[in-house]
Design brief:
mainly alpha; 2 domains; 20 helices; membrane; acyltransferase activity; MBOAT_fam; MBOAT family protein; transferase
């Protein structure tokens, strides 16, 4: 069940109405049932996997808490480590089996073939369960937090199961920590008009990002990236820039719809994006892009590795490990590993060149607090990020190399000859794409310093409704549907 489908547009109002209608003590049960229905709408079989993950992490929390009561400290420490290890091992093994097993067996056979050794390794024809990386990380964060003593274990299995499977953020985040979401299931939510209105406005913005902007940009992006040998120069550059905007609008739209839907029912989900393409460095980009995943890696991988409290070279090593694993988290392919490695490389090189950069700035007396300098930083950061997106989007490593090779071709006439309109989007749709990008840019510009929804609610009622109805018009009339429309899947569902 996709957010941008009729199924969800019927499902969500019914769930919300009944949620507010039934007594508080039954609400978590209702949400648990509907969350499993939501997940099973893709493939009922994979409800078993999320159920196993839930039971394992729930039991590990109980066993860790019981281990805390053992008077023998050595014994207590041993059993706590045992339970957290088993929870990590079982959950990561399931993730490995369904997402990475074939990739690693294929890589292994390729390595052995280089030394003329042929090995037969069985492959598994599994369909990747939707959102498995997201709910696995969310469940594991609970186990680790209980182990560290950051939270108390949850006694109520139903409420814990809801924490793992809460439908607004189940399949593509935000990745929530138990301390932020689990306690909210104990709160009594009443129908609040302003909260419902704000949630619906956020959902409306998410639908606009998805249906009007992202899905339209995807047409040109798919045309070029699926046929890399047919395009050169600015055709590839335009496609790569469009993909940068597409994936941002696609992923942030899901987060916005998820946050908005949760807000309607009274829940607060974490902010996942904060105008990432206004970043002036790669470090800042990762403080603004997929914020909850970055926080997960920081808390549960980077800091345990030593974080910043170690030597410079060890810090570089820690950074690279995190980004390589982040790339692998996104997908079982060399492209994703290179994408992650590139970002790690950017950060390491940026840190190494920092003294040289400061020396040049001081010697040339360059003003760093002016608009022109900040604009240059933002553009350079975007170029680096956009270059890495080529590896992320390309269908294979060989195709990414071909795209980069063909990119260095001078053909500016595509904008005057009409060739730009032969990349899947006709002239009108191309203009609509530019309009969508401009609207996203304007909204993000306002959001840097203000809460857009607060600003909108402070306007006169006529102005507000012009905005609301315009957004609905863009979504329903000018959105990308077409004959035999089937809702386009969100990009991050594959992770």
């Amino acid at each position: 069940m996709l957010f941008n489908s009729m199924h969800f547009l019927l499902f969500f109002p019914i769930v919300t109405f009944i949620y507010f209608f039934i007594p508080h003590k039954f609400r978590y049960i209702w949400l648990l049932i509907t969350s499993y229905y939501f997940y099973m709408s893709w493939n009922p079989k994979y409800a078993l996997l999320i159920g196993i993950s839930t039971i394992i992490t729930y039991l590990s929390g109980i066993l860790i808490e019981k281990s805390n009561k053992i008077t023998d400290k050595q014994k207590s420490k041993f059993f706590k480590k045992l339970w957290v290890f088993l929870s990590l091992f079982i959950n990561l093994s399931i993730l490995f089996l369904f997402k990475y097993c074939n990739f690693f067996t294929y890589t292994l056979t390729k390595i052995f073939s280089l030394i003329n050794i042929t090995i037969k390794v069985p492959s598994f024809d599994f369909i990747l369960p939707v959102g498995i990386s997201f709910y696995t990380f969310q469940a594991l964060s609970y186990t680790i937090d209980v182990y560290r003593g950051n939270i108390k274990f949850e006694k109520n299995l139903g409420k814990y199961a809801l924490f793992v499977s809460f439908f607004p953020q189940l399949v593509a985040g935000p990745i929530e920590k138990s301390k932020d979401l689990l306690n909210q299931f104990n709160e009594k939510h009443i129908f609040d008009y302003n909260r419902v209105k704000n949630g619906l406005v956020l959902m409306l913005w998410g639908f606009f990002q998805k249906v009007f902007v992202s899905d339209r940009l995807a047409i040109l992006v798919d045309t070029v990236f699926n046929n890399p040998s047919n395009y050169k120069g600015l055709e590839i550059i335009v496609a790569s820039v469009f993909f940068a905007i597409q994936i941002y609008c696609d992923f942030s739209s899901y987060s916005n719809i998820a946050r908005g839907a949760a807000e309607v029912m009274g829940f607060d989900l974490s902010l996942n994006f904060k105008q990432p393409y206004f970043s002036k460095s790669i470090q800042e980009f990762w403080r603004r892009w997929h914020i909850t995943l970055g926080a997960w890696f920081k808390d549960y991988l980077y800091i345990p590795l030593g974080g910043n409290k170690c030597s410079k070279w060890r810090r570089y090593f820690n950074n690279m490990v995190v980004f390589l694993i982040s790339g692998l988290w996104h997908g079982a392919a060399i492209n994703f590993i290179i994408w992650g490695g590139l970002h790690g490389f950017y950060i390491i090189i940026g840190d190494m060149l920092k003294p040289l950069k400061e020396k040049i700035i001081n010697n040339l007396k360059i003003k760093t607090n002016v608009f022109s300098f900040k604009l240059l930083q933002t553009l350079l950061t975007f170029i680096l990020v956009d270059f890495s997106w080529i590896f992320f989007r390309a269908n294979s490593f060989s195709e990414s190399k071909l795209l980069i090779k063909n990119m260095f071709y001078f053909n500016p006439w595509i904008f005057t000859s009409g060739s730009i309109y032969k990349l899947g989007l006709d002239q009108n749709d191309f203009k609509m794409s530019i309009l969508g990008i401009l609207i996203v840019f304007i909204i993000d510009s306002i959001a840097r310093n203000k809460d857009v929804r607060v600003e909108l609610s402070n306007q006169n009622i006529v102005f507000r409704w012009v905005i609301y109805l315009s957004a609905i018009f863009f979504i329903l009339i000018l959105g990308i549907y077409g004959a035999g429309y089937d809702a386009n899947q969100f990009i991050y569902f594959q992770f």
